[in-house]
Amino acid sequence: MKPSHITIKDIARILGVSPSTVSRALKDHPDISEETRNLVKTFAEKVKYRPNALALSLRKQKTNTLGLIIPEIVHHFFSSVISGMEDLAYGEGYHMMICQSNENYYREVINTQALLDHRVDGLLVSISKTTKEFNHLQTAIDNGTPVVFFDRICDEIETDRVITDDFEGARVATEHLIECGCKKILHLAAPKHLLIGKKRYEGYCHALKSHNIEIKEEFTLKCDTREEVLTMRQHLLDIAPEIDGVFAVNDSTAIAIMQVLQQNGYKIPDQIKVIGFGDGPNATIASPPLSTVEQKGYEMGREAVRMLIQRLENPTAPINYQTKIITPTLKKRSST
Amino acid sequence: MKPSHITIKDIARILGVSPSTVSRALKDHPDISEETRNLVKTFAEKVKYRPNALALSLRKQKTNTLGLIIPEIVHHFFSSVISGMEDLAYGEGYHMMICQSNENYYREVINTQALLDHRVDGLLVSISKTTKEFNHLQTAIDNGTPVVFFDRICDEIETDRVITDDFEGARVATEHLIECGCKKILHLAAPKHLLIGKKRYEGYCHALKSHNIEIKEEFTLKCDTREEVLTMRQHLLDIAPEIDGVFAVNDSTAIAIMQVLQQNGYKIPDQIKVIGFGDGPNATIASPPLSTVEQKGYEMGREAVRMLIQRLENPTAPINYQTKIITPTLKKRSST
DNA sequence: TTGAAAGCGCTAACAG
DNA sequence: CTGTTAGCGCTTTCAA
Lengths: 336, 336
What we know:
CATH topology of the largest domain in chain A: Rossmann fold
Radius of gyration of chain A: 27 Å
Keywords (chains A, B): DNA-binding, Transcription, Transcription regulation
Helix content of chain A: 40-55%
Shape of chain A: elongated
Oligomer: homodimer
Protein name (chains A, B): Transcriptional regulator, LacI family
Number of strands of chain A: 12
Organism (chains A, B): Alkalitalea saponilacus
Largest interface: A-B, 63 and 63 residues
Largest sheet of chain A: 6 strands, parallel
GO molecular function, one term (chains A, B): transcription cis-regulatory region binding
CATH class of the largest domain in chain A: Alpha Beta
Domain HTH lacI-type (chains A, B): 6-60
Number of domains of chain A: 3
Strand content of chain A: 5-15%
Strand order of the largest sheet of chain A: 2-1-3-4-5-11
Structural class of chain A: alpha/beta
CATH superfamily of the largest domain in chain A: Response regulator
Distance between the termini of chain A: 58 Å
Number of helices of chain A: 14
CATH architecture of the largest domain in chain A: 3-Layer(aba) Sandwich
């Protein structure tokens, strides 16, 4: 940043008025003669004067900047979230300072600190997988910087949150299979100790129960990556003759099992129907295009920013924290 | 940002010394007694003092912030770029302010302005598709804010750039098909007026020529999206019997044609080999996994930041702008 | 209607 | 070794 930026002082000096006059003229302060105002405004325009946001922030004690801490940028869901955040923030006159924790607790702490050092007005955070301690965030809140959690929330801290309704998404997906005529549905699940694993499993069970379908233990397999599908290939093929539907905890797992089944002569969706969860870009590329449950990252991002700005602009409002639940919607394609 | 942040002045008052003493003690200035230094440092630590980055920036005329303008965050390539940028910037003590132009010229201009208002030390930009005018960026450079272009560069502005070697990538891909025994290679191309379309076409031709394979005009088809493949389905199937290889300008097109061919009984790679360009996450999910040319977004991001910081930290160095060309590498999988 | 002065938080030149 | 002062760019009393 070269000193070549023109300042209010420069304008004042050149025009032979005081800096305060310039400042007032520029922002249409009432106590200013129209003459001076025009003079100043015209000149400012001519020399392309732009206020220094740093100085403004320092003075106003408000940066109009939102800090974001995200586990991984390269991930369709998270990048959609960022996109939604950026779009809304931009529209509301805020900017985003973005840090990625790379799923590393230590880095998450440093990032938080750095964002606070920059005096961001608020924080948007999705906690990293390795984070077990939340002092860094609690402290931020205690010191007056509001935090909104999204997706990977932290139960121990009371604040605003936006999450996906995993239970409901899974329920809808399973229900859809049932409506398509499936009675023997395999669930490829994430580990139960992960919240999403647990919730999606529960949604699956709920749907079965409400249709009086027996929940067989052997029909839920811990298998949540493409690689795992390939490793378990034989076991999956052994089960295949006994099933007519698969609900996989994510799209890549769903696609992988579709492929394994197809390679072994199963017709999809005729013999076995498959549904995933997440609706990343792969779902449409799969063959047949994969039915799935859309996770709405963009909307989640917007919502988180909306809640944060809401808090920022009503600092005196009574603090009653909200948890906004985003219900994923069924995307019916050709695999079911 | 509540005023509850402790400042140097607060510490000075409490400890009964002057602010400058505190400032000096904190940064291990030589002219300070060990006693005072320890006193100050211990106290600062106790009250968790953190310097205000805004004040620092204003004072030092340096923000340690890099501005990024990117067409779309939700895009595997671009999000990889951001990730690479963020990682390196973070390591070098810089932060990133990110704006997306959404392929909109007007918004790109506003974003540039906003970042300059925030006095970012430098700009990283990939221009939007609708940008035909570059004054906003030229002005930035003229006023002393260095700019590094990446991926979507602008020829009219002289500055540092990082680009992918599209010609070479296409050449290597085509060459690979030839080495696998293909002699009749179809090229699904992007429009010639796009730089990547042109360069990749040229690379394809070059490979053919150097192996004395005739370049048939009817073997290059403008077709660069999945949808287009489906639209041209019949035409592609008409040509299919005459070809033994396909080089598609991007992965999704490659995957789409693989699927069309497979649905019509062609065995891949036995009868027809297919290679793509880009190596997004789809490539591995395709069946068979798609051979492709890896575009290295992460590396491109790092490189762009490296060049920018280099410039920032050697302001007096002679300005000789560099163009760094990143050569994509062949990812051989099972479709060839 | 305008200007002078103080201050946001920090540093650095200059005194002492 | 430490304090005083001025100033980064801006706004906002307070006085005139």
